[in-house]
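#lab-general

N.A. 3:47 PM
ok so I finally got the sequence cleaned up, no stray characters, all 117 residues accounted for. can someone with queue access submit it? mine expired

B.Y. 3:52 PM
send it over

N.A. 3:53 PM
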Amino acid sequence: QVQLVESGGGLVQAGGSLRLSCAASGIIFSRNVIMGWYRQAPGKQRELVADITDGGNTNYADSVKGRFTISRDNAKNTVYLQLDSLLPEDTGVYSCNALRYGSYNLWGQGTQVTVSS
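B.Y. 4:20 PM
back already:
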C-alpha cells in the first residue's frame, strides 16, 4: 500500500520549534522522487514550504528561509521538516508530498501546526 504518514504537529508558542516527519511506504523513496512539505492556512490556498530532491538539493519559500530546514533519510524512507523561530502566520495544516514525474504525485493526510502569539 502506497502512503505517506505525517507526524509531529502541535501547538507551540511563537518563537518555539517543532519537527515534522513524513514516513513513506510502498514507493522507492530515493529514486527521482522529490519530497515536499506544503501548508494551508485557514482561508488561503495551499503553498509550498520546502522541497528536497533525491540528491539533496533543497528549495524554500521566502517566508521560511533561515527558519525551516528540510531533510530526508532515504534509508528510513522519511522526510523531515524542522520548524524554528515559529510565527503565528506559520499556522496551518502541513502536508507531505511525494512527486515522481510521470509516475505519481502522492499526498499525506496532513498534520496541524498552531502557533500562538
